[in-house]
Amino acid sequence: MSNDKDSMNMSDLSTALNEEDRAGLVNALKNKLQNLAGQHSDVLENLTPPVRKRVEFLREIQNQYDEMEAKFFEERAALEAKYQKLYQPLYTKRYEIVNGVVEVEGAAEEVKSEQGEDKSAEEKGVPDFWLIALKNNEITAEEITERDEGALKYLKDIKWSRVEEPKGFKLEFFFDQNPYFKNTVLTKTYHMIDEDEPILEKALGTEIEWYPGKCLTQKILKKKPKKGSKNTKPITKTEDCESFFNFFSPPQVPDDDEDLDDDMADELQGQMEHDYDIGSTIKEKIISHAVSWFTGEAVEADDLDIEDDDDEIDEDDDEEDEEDDEDDEEEDDEDDDEEEEADQGKKSKKKAGRSQLAEGQAGERPPECKQQ
Amino acid sequence: MSNDKDSMNMSDLSTALNEEDRAGLVNALKNKLQNLAGQHSDVLENLTPPVRKRVEFLREIQNQYDEMEAKFFEERAALEAKYQKLYQPLYTKRYEIVNGVVEVEGAAEEVKSEQGEDKSAEEKGVPDFWLIALKNNEITAEEITERDEGALKYLKDIKWSRVEEPKGFKLEFFFDQNPYFKNTVLTKTYHMIDEDEPILEKALGTEIEWYPGKCLTQKILKKKPKKGSKNTKPITKTEDCESFFNFFSPPQVPDDDEDLDDDMADELQGQMEHDYDIGSTIKEKIISHAVSWFTGEAVEADDLDIEDDDDEIDEDDDEEDEEDDEDDEEEDDEDDDEEEEADQGKKSKKKAGRSQLAEGQAGERPPECKQQ
After folding, report:
1. Do A203 and A163 form a contact (C-beta atoms < 8 A)?
2. Taking CA B222 as the corner, what is the angle to CA B216 and CA B225, rounded to the nearest 5 degrees?
3. Nearest CB to B5: which of A265, A339, A358?
């Protein structure tokens, strides 16, 4: 594995405000924050009367901003909903082809010419479509064991939808009748606390109704009884094991926070982050670009993006000198000669084959759990 | 400090696709991915002719999707730009009041009645506005040392703007003439590699032209010469130290990745994440809601969101049973009895005063650097 780390995978940052795909970070500073909040009321009271008047006026301006921003959130949600609707017929077509509900032009002829040669005549749709797509994304691939593959072959579709109250989203995994479990839909729901400052409330998964002896999230260990023991039957012991299907039993926060010590809290945090990574990868990447994940093109695209960029950026170094046309008049005169930048990182991007640096949540707390 | 961890601060997830505020995560798996990509071409070649035909058709559908998605990105960017423009007059007004360029109604009278009593008559605008705002956000507060405060009192405004080529954003810190450094604008620019899969290329900062002896990012240590030494002058030694102004000297990736061992790479990754957290906090939170950060209301709002939600969600538990109206016809019949969810996390949210769990980047790699 390479250690190259020239870049960080992170926000495109093309808008000012957004509540999406923000992964929030630990706030173990709550008490401190409450204290700060208290202090700040004092700060306001201690202002001299003219300054307080000005701050009151500023608060009105802030209120106007907040109203505008609320409208922005509304309009953006409407835009997103519009496109989700536009995408639906394409998702339906994909479903029908993948599962052999409809046949594409030309494929029937191919089936005929192949008949007798091999098993392809019997193949309906695109076998293992979702299994292969999930195995080609590194986040989801890590979750899939060899044992899981048998069950994931029966996966017919994955969909996501918004959940409004409480805010969040739901993933639905549609399965064909299969020898592993009774359910035909497995769901995973993420409930968020707030829109602007999105906070995960909890993650919920469908309880899987495994057929006897078919549970993929547990292993049965058989032990021979000790010699001389009266009991001659083998002792069986079940043990939790790795499986993609653990995704439907997300980590649970204990009722009483005091049951958690720092290490347990860190571990739980890590588990919840991991669980959310999988869910959001499926929602953001797999569902929308499943065909490209199936073919592997989505993997290649990730690579190409990086290499294209290496060439591109070298030509753009002088872009930094562009004027920011949003500047206030008072400040325009300050804006010319201050753009010398300590640009030591430039060369490293030319190196091909490097990997991307991790990045904590944009605008949120850093990924470490801050305990004090 | 509390260890309560009932919730994770993360994406609101209200849209399907977004490139914003995603903090990407480590991809040290690049070689593996390239191998996978290679394997996948083989997968395609090994498909039987009818299946290959179907996959070709699916790729056309995916292309249609990608075109729609590109339009969505365009429309969303336009919407965001529209609102950024709408916000500008409010930002300008704020600037003028904060810096005493204009006086608000009523404040002049207050100044008169105060005259002679204390120094308030001389106060222009809202003193220390940005310093206090930055100190009330826990991400930025952590960066500010006591020494920094003297210089940050001269901060007149902070603005952000998009950078188009390469994609990213620029923060501009406008300073009044001050005894610390010559610059009147300090900038920090984040360059991203790609829009859909946003990856940080590099971060650049203005080189600060400190006045002699005024550098806040270094400390001068004076040592007495050793007894008996011929040199009787004290030895001075400069040492880097903590300072908000280190934000303008972001971590640099070395030219040659091979110079980095795993531990160094992890450390660098952590530094880059931390640096990006500060930048995106300023862009996403501080600039847009500076007044609320100044007054402390933004801190309180964070708390209130959580507590409000505790009450709210308990009433919404049955929302899970809503039908997803985007389901394909083929699947609707499967969609009724599968919503039993393992809902053990529910109780914990009732506890007040708990804090938020950290969350890695939605849809991206988990925050740890995966080295293999």
Report:
1. no
2. 165
3. A265
**Chain B, nearest residue to A278 by Cα:** B363
User: Of B88-92, B179-183, B312-316, which gets the smallest average pLDDT?
Assistant: B312-316
Smallest Cα distance from A244 to chain B, Å: 16
Mark yes or no for CB contact A276/B193 under 8 Å.
no
As a CATH number, domain B128-288 is 3.30.1120.90
A-B contacts (CB, under 8 Å): 849
Contact A20 B15 (CB under 8 A): yes
pTM: 0.68
Interface test with B, best of A14, A35, A75, A287 (most B CBs within 10 A): A14
Integer distance in angstroms from the first to the last C-alpha of chain A? 35
3-state secondary structure of B195: coil
Residue-wise pLDDT tens digits, B299-351 = 866 544 433 333 333 333 333 333 333 333 344 443 333 333 333 333 232 22
Rounded Cα gap, residues A119 and A125, in angstroms: 13
The total of other beta-carbon atoms located within 10 Å of residue A15's CB is 25
Considering CB atoms only, which of B59, B355, B372 is closest to A1?
A: B372
Contact B58 A291 (CB under 8 A): yes
CB contact under 8 A, B11 and A30: no
Cα separations in angstroms, B219 against A313, B142, B208, B242: 36, 19, 15, 9
Q: DSSP readout, A247-309?
A: GGS-----S-GGG--HHHHHHHHHHHHHHHHHHHHIIIIITTTHHHHHHTHHHHHHHHHHHHH
Q: Is this complex's ipTM strictly greater than 0.85? A: no
Contact B149, B134 (CB under 8 A): no
Instruction: List chain A pLDDT tens, one digit each, 372 residues.
Output: 333 333 333 333 222 223 333 333 233 333 344 444 445 556 678 899 999 999 999 999 999 999 999 999 999 999 999 999 999 999 999 999 999 999 988 877 776 665 555 554 568 899 999 999 999 999 999 999 999 999 999 999 999 998 887 788 999 999 999 999 999 999 999 988 765 555 677 889 999 999 999 999 999 888 777 777 777 777 888 899 999 999 999 988 776 666 678 888 888 888 888 899 899 999 999 999 999 999 998 886 654 443 333 333 333 333 333 333 333 334 444 333 333 333 333 323 322 222 233 333 333 332 232 232
Please name the residue of chain A whose CA is at the shortest distance from the CA of residue B71: A83
Element (H, E) at A189: strand A185-192
* CA–CA separation, B316 and B309 (whole Å): 11
- Judge whether A8 and B193 are in contact, CB under 8 Å: no
Contact A64 B22 (CB under 8 A): no
Note whether A24 and B356 are within 8 A (CB). Answer: yes
For residue B174, the surrounding DSSP H or E stretch is strand B168-175
- Hey, is B118 helix, strand or coil? coil
- Give yes or no for a contact between A188 and A279, defined as CB atoms under 8 angstroms apart: yes
Q: What is the DSSP letter of B285?
A: I
